[in-house]
Specification:
- The structure is a single chain.
- By secondary structure, the chain is α+β, with helices and mostly antiparallel strands.
- The protein has three domains: 132 residues, no CATH class; 44 residues, no CATH class; 122 residues, Alpha-Beta Plaits (2-Layer Sandwich), CATH 3.30.70.
- Helices cover 29% and strands 22% of the residues.
- The strands form six sheets. The protein has a four-stranded antiparallel beta sheet.
- Helix 2 crosses helix 3.
- The chain is elongated and about 140 Å long.
- It starts with a helix and ends with a strand.
- About 17% of the residues have low confidence.
Length: 352
């Protein structure tokens, strides 16, 4: 069972006034933090308790709290509180100093008045819970040290002769003009250089695509050359052109026999044809109109050529990606393809 002293202590933490019926009431007042300079102590904020013997009417706060915590009826709780008040009065009137835990002590003065002294070791202010008095060390007094006067011998120095130097005025406007013209020249020189370099030394006009490597004048450009070679060919046969509902490209059969001693010069103008059909592939010529180090540029050019009606394709091989505008199986077809390409603005070289 919770005692009335414990319940009064808990109520004083939450309320500013707690009344003991027929005895008196405790009134709490908040006190801010203070500094005791004589003792060198900082005192935290707290609650100061005052006892008023005229507050004897039952406000029901203490009785209801006692009944709630001890599971009693209100009447039984009121009876317990009344007995506690009567016992306090009896002991105080007999001259006994009555002390309530954590709250304070009651006693009679010489004039038979009830006096209350609060317990200074318990703080009823919840916002200051855990705070204690703090001792501080006073600052040390400043010690002023007077500087010593030291006599210093004065050494006479030889007089300093100032020599005037002629001042040459520089025309600021003239220098500003030179800097201005130099800056303009530095801007237009690269533009003029690349306006000549790109059309003459790159294939931007033919391919319609430009890469970052085209701006590098020191980059070595890999050029694919068509070099005719000689070989021993026994016979070259050309298949007949078969026409159905659609036209199919003709093919050639080239059979090479190393035992033959006939030497034929491999030249585009001297293509030997044969009317006898055969079952193999014929010789094909690719007309290359562009070489790119970036394959994406080659794919873009192929798409542009196909939109213009050419049978364009990407030819893999080597460090560069080649773009063929079309293929031909005979000299006549190749000449027609070259003329059509030139008429569209594309020039290239032949890859066999």
């Amino acid at each position: 069972m919770f005692s009335i002293e414990e319940i009064i202590c808990q109520l004083l933490l939450r309320h500013s006034c707690v009344i003991i019926p027929s005895f008196g009431g405790f009134v709490a007042q908040a006190i801010p933090a203070s500094i005791d300079l004589n003792k060198g102590t900082i005192i935290p904020p707290s609650k100061h308790l005052l006892f008023n013997k005229n507050l004897i009417n039952n406000d029901g706060l203490l009785t209801a709290e006692f009944a709630s915590l001890n599971k009693l009826s209100f009447d039984d709780s009121f009876s317990k509180v009344s007995d506690f008040a009567s016992e306090l009065k009896s002991e105080i009137n007999r001259g006994i100093k009555v002390e309530l835990a954590k709250i304070g002590a009651f006693h009679l003065d010489k004039e038979k008045n009830i006096c209350f002294e609060q317990n200074r070791y318990f703080n009823f202010l919840l916002s200051s819970y855990g705070l204690t008095n703090v001792q501080f060390v006073p600052s040390a007094k400043e010690i002023i040290i007077e500087p010593k006067v030291v006599e210093v011998e004065v050494i006479e120095q030889a007089p300093i002769i100032e020599i005037e130097t002629p001042i040459v005025k520089i025309n600021a406007k003239k220098s500003n003009r030179i800097v201005k013209y130099a800056a303009i020249a530095a801007c237009f020189l690269p533009i003029g250089f690349y306006s000549v370099w790109i059309p003459m030394k790159t294939n931007v006009i033919q391919s319609g695509a430009i890469t970052i490597n085209d701006f590098n004048p020191f980059r070595e450009k890999n050029v694919n050359l068509f070099i005719p070679s000689k070989s021993n060919i026994e016979s070259i046969q050309e298949t007949e052109v078969v026409k159905e509902q659609k036209d199919f490209k003709s093919t050639k059969d080239i059979q090479i026999d190393n035992s033959s001693s006939v030497e034929v010069e491999n030249h585009l103008s001297e293509v030997i044809t044969n009317n006898n059909p055969s079952s193999g592939k014929r010789q094909s010529f690719e007309y290359i109109v562009g070489c790119f180090s970036n394959k994406n540029n080659a794919v873009q050019l192929v798409a542009t050529l196909k939109s213009q009606g050419f049978d364009a394709a990407v030819i893999e091989g080597g460090s560069l990606t080649r773009v063929s505008i079309g293929s031909a199986s005979s000299q006549k077809m190749l000449d027609s393809l070259i003329q059509l390409s030139i008429s569209k603005g594309y020039q290239g070289w032949i890859l066999k």
